[in-house]
Specification:
disordered C terminus, disordered N terminus, 7-stranded parallel β-sheet, globular, alpha/beta, 5-stranded antiparallel β-sheet, 376 residues
Length: 376
Amino acid sequence: MGNNSAHETDGGRRPQQQIPVVVLAGFLGSGKTTLLNHLLHRSAGSRIGAIVNDFGAIEIDALAVAGALGDSTVSLGNGCLCCAVDAGELDVYLGKLAAPETGVDVIVIEASGLAEPQELVRMVLASEHPGIVYGGLVEVVDAAEFDDTRARHPEIDRHLALADLVVVNKLDRAADPERVLALVGSLTDGAAVVPATYGRIDPEFLFDCRPSEERIGQLSFDDLHDHGDGRGDDHGTDGLGGSGHAGHLHTGYDSLSFVSDVPLDPRRLMRFLDSRPEGLYRIKGHVDLGPNDPRNRYTMHAVGRFLRFYPESWAPADERRTQLVLIGSGIDTEALGSELKGCESDAPHADEHGMWGVLRYVQGSEDEPDPEPCGG
């Protein structure tokens, strides 16, 4: 889910890269900290900045050895994050983590079990920091206790409806896992629903993983925790419970890479985006809209129902083409590829009003929709 989308700069220069901010929510005992620790250990060469309420829950030794304790972790031990700080204060924390010298690739806000996810998402969306971009709301639920949790906390239905990605954790402990998965899916608004045990999900669902070899001169969490030594893992060597995927409740993601040398028609593209299916969690990449805007390519960043376009000037050496990656759970990649192919248009002239739909999702546009948690 969150990719390093571009932010427009003055003078038509190449935009700086933005760091995705992922909100990790869920009621007490759902497994948020376990999931975050899994990401820290299996970050695939990426550097994670964390804002957490209970600092003691994070494996401080791993952070310290990586040299990250001082500059890429913010501790908030004074209660619920959405009540403890306002949007301006959160900007200060985000600014600290997004500073170039930290080398952070993604920021994860682990909310307390009593936090209100919608308020946290609004705070991130209200951020004025140019170096970050909303990376999605991840709701973690305890499959074994889901019925009891709903009875005690009926607001969980609303939380699930807001989520961009739902991790159904502890699925191995549920009496009827398929029923729980179906029930959770029925309560979401098109979010990808991913089954998990021990909080193990593929990091690519949340951020673009860097190869470890790109991190010259800096230890990654992969370096700290050799995948073959069994430490930090409940069941073996692959981070997914055992030496392979077979026999474990783990579902990987489906992905589609779409490349086209033919420009896309903006009206057709928006129809595709407006009707994107459940489970299509992330879309990232660049779009060539041809004569509808010959000066700019458009970086697209979609997570759940959240959508933004970032226009940036074509560089003289750029090869004018569309390059998109779509990531989801249970998506029909062949059908999505065909639909995107149907968005191609070699019309030599611009559609007078064709860009209106796209421009609604350009930050700062007069027609930009209100920043709802799921993108509006």
